C-alpha cells in the first residue's frame, strides 16, 4: 500500500463531500430522464480540467431517448504515457423519483452529522464522487503511469441501462483492447466486493375480455376477473414453489438467496384520467400485469418462463373464455465473476490494507450495469465496489457517509495503483 495515496485522499475529504453535494443537486430523475445533459457536462468540465479527454455520447434510439430527454453519457479518458492496461470506473448518474416521506429537500444535498443526504446520495452519486476523488488522488501521486484511466457517468441504469452502458458497450467502450478492467461503485458496503447478480426476467401478461355495460356484466367478460385468477394461481402455486429454491450464490441480503417474483404493476379497465368526474360503467376488456422475476444461477431461463406459462395455459384450458398474451420486456442471465480475477484480487488486497480484515464477497439481489459490460462488451473482469448501504437506496432521507466515501476512495485508489503497476 502506497501511504501517499491514503494521504492524498484524506486531503480531499471536504472536496469529496462538496462534489457529492453538487452531483445530488442535478435532479437526474429516471423516468423520464431529467437533467442528464447538465450533469454529464459538469462531470466532463471537472475531468477535462484535470487532463482528461472527454466525450458526451447520446444513447440515440434507446428507450425514452428524445430531444426533450436525451440519454446523455460522459466518458473521460486520461492516457498514462506508456503502454499498459486501462482501468475504467463506471457510475450511473440517474436516480429514481424522490417519492414521499422525506424530512428534507431530496435534491438539496444536505450535509449533516458526517453524512450527505439526498436522492442518489447512496445510489450512486456518492460512489461516483468517490471514484473521481480516488482517481484524482492517484494522479496527484503518480502523474505518469502505465496504461490509461477512464471514468464514465452513464444514463438509465435504474430502467435497465439501455441508454447508457448497453449503448456504449455495443460501440466498444467496454471491450478490449480499449478497456481491461471495470469497477462499478454501486453501494454494497465499503468492505464488500460484489461479484455479480441474480438473473432477471421482466414480462407483461395481458388478459382479455369483452366490454359491456357495467349494469349487465353478464353480457361482457371481465379481463380483471381473469387476471384475478392468474394472481390466485401465483399465490397458491408459484410463490410457494419459488420460496423453496435456494442458491449457492452469496446473495445479500440472505432472504434474496431464494427465487423471487414481484408484481410490478397492474392496470385494468379504464384509466384514472376521468377526474374530475366519475367513470363510465364498463366491463374491463383488458388487464395488464408486469412481473419482475429474479432467478438463480442454478435455474435455466427457459424453465423460469415455463413455470409462468404453464399456469397460464392451464387456466386457458380450465377457465371459460380465458385468453392471454405474454410479452418479454427484459431478460438477463445471472453472473458471477471469479474471485481470483484481477479486479477482485486488487480490491481484496486494498480492503485488507485499508480495513485490516478480509473482504466479504457478495452477489447483488438486483442487476446493475455489469450485465451489459459482460454480455455486450464481453469483458468479464468487472465487479461492483463502492460506498453506501444498499438498504438505503430508493428510500426517503437517503444518505451516504462521508467517512465511508473516503475509505472507499482509498480502496479504489489503491486498487487502481495495483492494476496499473502490476503489469508494468
Automatic annotation (TrEMBL):
The coenzyme or cofactor needed here is: Zn(2+); Co(2+)
Domain Peptidase M20 dimerisation, residue spans: 196-317
Quote the Gene3D superfamilies the UniProt record gives. 3.30.70.360, Zn peptidases
Instruction: Please name the Pfam families in this protein's record.
Output: M20_dimer, Peptidase_M20
Does the keyword Hydrolase belong to this entry? yes
Entry keyword set = Cobalt, Hydrolase, Metal-binding, Zinc
Task: Kindly give the PANTHER family that the UniProt entry links to this protein.
Answer: ACETYLORNITHINE DEACETYLASE, ARGE_DAPE-RELATED DEACYLASE
What family name appears in the similarity comment?
Belongs to the peptidase M20A family.
- Please state what the protein is called: Acetylornithine deacetylase/succinyl-diaminopimelate desuccinylase family protein
Q: Which organism is it from?
A: Chelativorans intermedius
Amino acid at each position: 500500500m502506497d501511504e501517499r495515496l491514503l494521504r492524498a485522499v484524506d486531503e480531499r475529504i471536504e472536496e469529496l463531500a462538496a462534489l457529492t453535494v453538487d452531483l445530488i443537486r442535478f435532479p437526474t430523475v429516471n423516468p423520464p430522464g431529467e437533467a442528464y445533459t447538465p450533469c454529464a457536462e459538469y462531470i466532463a468540465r471537472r475531468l477535462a480540467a484535470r487532463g482528461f479527454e472527454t466525450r458526451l455520447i447520446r444513447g440515440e434510439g434507446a428507450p425514452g431517448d428524445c430531444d426533450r430527454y436525451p440519454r446523455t453519457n460522459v466518458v473521460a479518458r486520461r492516457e498514462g504515457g506508456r503502454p499498459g492496461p486501462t482501468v475504467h470506473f463506471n457510475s450511473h448518474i440517474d436516480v429514481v423519483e424522490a417519492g414521499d416521506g422525506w424530512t428534507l429537500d431530496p435534491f438539496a444535498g444536505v450535509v449533516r452529522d458526517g453524512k450527505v443526504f439526498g436522492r442518489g446520495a447512496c445510489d450512486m452519486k456518492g460512489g461516483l464522487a468517490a471514484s473521481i476523488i480516488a482517481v484524482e488522488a492517484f494522479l496527484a501521486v503518480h502523474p505518469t503511469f502505465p496504461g490509461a484511466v477512464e471514468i464514465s457517468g452513464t444514463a438509465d441504469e435504474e430502467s435497465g441501462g439501455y441508454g447508457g452502458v448497453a449503448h456504449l458497450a455495443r460501440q466498444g467502450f467496454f471491450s478490449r483492447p480499449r478497456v481491461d478492467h471495470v469497477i462499478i461503485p454501486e453501494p454494497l458496503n465499503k468492505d464488500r466486493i460484489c461479484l455479480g447478480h441474480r438473473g432477471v426476467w421482466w414480462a407483461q401478461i395481458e388478459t382479455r375480455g369483452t366490454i359491456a355495460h357495467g349494469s349487465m356484466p353478464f353480457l361482457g367478460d371481465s379481463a380483471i376477473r381473469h387476471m384475478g385468477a392468474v394472481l390466485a394461481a401465483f399465490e397458491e402455486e408459484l410463490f410457494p414453489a419459488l420460496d423453496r429454491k435456494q442458491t449457492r450464490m452469496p446473495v445479500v441480503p440472505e432472504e434474496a438467496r431464494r427465487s423471487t417474483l414481484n408484481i410490478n404493476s397492474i392496470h385494468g379497465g379504464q384509466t384514472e384520467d376521468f377526474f374530475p368526474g366519475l367513470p363510465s360503467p364498463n366491463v374491463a376488456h383488458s388487464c395488464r400485469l408486469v412481473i419482475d422475476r429474479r432467478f438463480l444461477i442454478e435455474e435455466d431461463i427457459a424453465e423460469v418462463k415455463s413455470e409462468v406459462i404453464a399456469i397460464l395455459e392451464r387456466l386457458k384450458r380450465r377457465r371459460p373464455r380465458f385468453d392471454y398474451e405474454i410479452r418479454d420486456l427484459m431478460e438477463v442471465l445471472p453472473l458471477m465473476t471469479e474471485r481470483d480475477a484481477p479486479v477482485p484480487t486488487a480490491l481484496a488486497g486494498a480492503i485488507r490494507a485499508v480495513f485490516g480484515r478480509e473482504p466479504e464477497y457478495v452477489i447483488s439481489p438486483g442487476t446493475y450495469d455489469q450485465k451489459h459490460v459482460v454480455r455486450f462488451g464481453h469483458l468479464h473482469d468487472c465487479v461492483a465496489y463502492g460506498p453506501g448501504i444498499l438498504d438505503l437506496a430508493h428510500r426517503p432521507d437517503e444518505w451516504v457517509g462521508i467517512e465511508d466515501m473516503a475509505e472507499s476512495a482509498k480502496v479504489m485508489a489503491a486498487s487502481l495503483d495495483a492494476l496499473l503497476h502490476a503489469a508494468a
